[in-house]
Automatic annotation (TrEMBL):
The keyword Transmembrane helix applies. Coiled coil: none annotated. The keyword Disulfide bond does not apply. Belongs to the amiloride-sensitive sodium channel (TC 1.A.6) family. This is Uncharacterized protein. Keywords: Glycoprotein, Ion channel, Ion transport, Membrane, Sodium, Sodium channel, Sodium transport, Transmembrane, Transmembrane helix, Transport. The chain crosses the membrane at residues 41-63. It is a multi-pass membrane protein. GO terms for molecular function: ligand-gated sodium channel activity. InterPro entries: ENaC, ENaC_CS. It is found in: Membrane.
């Protein structure tokens, strides 16, 4: 048994390959040895060609499987639906009558007016020995300070501040009488004349807000509208509630499922660009199941716009409406519809549900992902805004006032800080690199809008289901794993007759070849290790010894006679020395010695 084990370790890789060819179940390989040389060559060529075809086709099948192709199936499912989430805002975000009491907002509107109408005439500073004769010349040389302006003096700095109780005064009229400059001006000594020009400071302030006379009215209006959220973040919560619209300010009547509803059914949401908006979300309330279709089982609102209180920035009169999935946040600036005042508008809803497959390149987000910036379900728009806010905080050191903050202690970027504003605008490009996949389970709402003229001055809005059936779109594997294995087996079996058993045979061949190559390498290492000895080691034993090692002897020098199995210069006691060295080899090989190979009163060297 020991000799057989050693023989397996010493088997040459060429013999392993020949033995495997005779025993394998692969028909093409096993028939090569059964023919003569010419036929063997032809059969080998055919087998090799078939092998290339199998590899090529199996590679194509594997590439197709790794593409993770999907197919869609559509079905209509009947059942009770829940009323979707509904968000409504006033297109005019802030009340003009309330903003007139706040100098921050009035200032930016005045500078917007200057950018559209042009700069006032610049006063000229009097030269020495120059006199003023007429009243018009006095107005030209001296800027009159309104009596509604208050001057705050702190050290060497003087600030001209508008009296908020007198809202009819234009802000750029509050000019320091001594220095002719707006807002911040240097206090001058009483015995000297201040030579400052307030027109230059007006242009500087306009540049701070991003206004430019050459851009035109529409471009400056857009910049002013972008600046309002910056100013809204600087006021207190009480003032913010005063300048924005309450639910009762524009909703005159509300009916839901044929029953009266009110502000208690809606949740207040801050949308920055539209002020305060109000969301009807069935996730937070009960009784929103829709048993039937039609306007009687929907939402009806009577809305008043109050155009007299609109800002000059607001170009249209009406409301902003967003119909979205329950439990998700609404984004009025990117989704939704405008409802004009004085029209009877109807929204007929149809439900669509999409179930996506999350594998391979078809990546989607399941319901376990919790957004950090916006509460509720995951949405693509919320993910993009969260990504943009993260980039802005990292790059600019402040938060964009149009989005919520991650922490309550985070500060917003300032309006008059041009460096921060430019940084915010540049960081918005980071949204293009955001990875925001679609949700795996998404309930969409298909809308059919119809608007007619109303006989009243109010806007009437109806939202209802046009169909109670849910159209479900399900994604599935277009090329499943079972089909992939079946195609692999059919291809390999058709060309080469390979099966799963043949695959295990190939693995066993690889193992045996590696084992044989390792044995050959080990013998070479042993020869290199013991070549420094006086007599080379090459043990030989007779065939009749059952436990003996193989008779194969490798001559290590010319003194060895392979025919007789002895050394030509053999001396007395050489057999014992050979046995001792053989035991060293046996220990290195990890083999057990038989009794015939043990020498009494001898110990192996350590």
């Amino acid at each position: 048994m020991l000799g057989k084990q050693y023989h397996n370790n010493m088997e040459h890789p060429r013999n392993v390959w020949r033995r495997w060819k005779n025993d394998t179940t692969i028909i093409g390989v096993s028939r090569i040895e059964q023919f003569r040389k010419k036929e063997e060559f032809v059969w080998g060529f055919v087998t090799l060609l078939a092998g290339f075809i199998v590899v090529f086709q199996c590679s194509n099948l594997s590439f197709r499987f790794l593409q993770f192709e999907v197919k869609t199936s559509t079905s209509l499912v009947a059942g009770h639906l829940r009323f979707p989430a509904f968000t409504i805002c006033n297109i005019n975000p802030y009340k003009a009558s309330e903003l007139a009491k706040l100098w921050q907002f009035v200032e930016i509107l005045d500078y917007l007016n200057i950018s559209q109408t042009g700069l006032p005439p610049e006063p000229r500073v009097l030269l020495p020995n120059e006199s003023v004769e007429s009243l018009s010349q006095k107005e030209r040389y001296n800027v009159v300070v309104s009596s509604y302006c208050k001057c705050n003096v702190t050290g060497e700095q003087v600030s001209c501040v508008l009296d908020q109780q007198q809202s009819s005064v234009s802000l750029y009229a509050c000019v320091c009488m001594m220095v002719k400059s707006i807002w911040s001006c240097v206090k001058c000594p009483t015995n000297q004349t201040c030579h400052y020009r307030h027109i230059a400071l007006i242009e500087e302030k306009m540049n701070t807000y991003g206004f430019n006379i050459r851009d035109g009215g529409i471009a400056n209006q857009v910049k002013a509208a972008e600046s309002l959220p910056y100013l809204a973040r600087t006021v207190s919560n009480e003032i913010y509630e005063q300048i924005t619209y309450n639910f009762s300010d524009f909703v005159r009547s509300c009916r839901l499922m044929g029953k009266p509803c009110g502000a208690s059914n809606f949740v207040e949401r801050d949308q920055s660009s539209y002020g305060r908006c109000y969301t009807l979300d069935p996730e937070f309330q009960d009784g929103f199941a829709v048993p039937r279709r039609g306007p009687d089982y929907g939402l009806t609102l009577l809305l008043a716009s109050s155009p007299d209180d609109y800002l000059s920035l607001t170009e249209s009169e009406g409301f902003r409406v967003v119909i979205h999935e329950e439990g998700s946040r609404s984004f009025t600036t990117t989704t939704g519809f405008d409802i004009p005042a004085g029209l009877y508008t109807k929204f007929a809803i149809r439900a669509f549900r999409t179930l996506r497959l999350n594998q391979g390149s078809n990546v989607c987000v399941d319901g376990t992902v919790i957004p950090r910036l916006y509460t509720g379900k995951y949405t693509i728009e919320g993910c993009q805004r969260e990504c943009a806010q993260t980039a802005i905080v990292k790059k600019c050191g402040c938060s964009d006032p149009r989005y919520p903050t991650f922490n309550a202690n985070d500060s917003y970027c300032g309006l008059e800080n041009n460096e921060q504003r430019n940084c915010v605008n540049d960081a918005q490009e980071a949204v293009l690199a955001c990875d925001c996949p679609s949700p795996c389970d998404r309930l969409l709402k298909g809308l059919r809008k119809q608007a007619n003229e109303s006989s009243v001055l109010y806007a009437i809005l109806e939202v209802f289901f046009d169909e109670t059936l849910v159209e479900t779109i399900v994604e599935a594997d277009a090329y499943q794993f079972a089909t992939y294995l079946s195609d692999l087996g059919a291809t390999s079996g058709f060309w080469l007759g390979i099966s799963v058993v043949s695959g295990f045979e190939i693995l066993l061949l690889i193992y045996d070849l590696g084992k044989a190559m390792y044995g050959q390498l080990e013998i070479r290492l042993l020869h290199l290790r013991f070549r420094h000895l006086e007599q080379p080691v090459s043990p030989v034993f007779t065939i009749d010894e059952p436990d003996a090692l193989p008779l194969r002897a490798v001559p290590l020098n010319r003194d060895w006679d392979p025919r007789t199995g002895r050394y030509r210069s053999e001396k007395p006691g050489l057999a014992e020395d050979r046995a001792r060295r053989y035991r060293i080899l046996a220990r290195i090989q990890g083999l057990r010695l038989g009794n015939r190979h043990r020498m009494p009163n001898t110990r192996l060297p350590i």
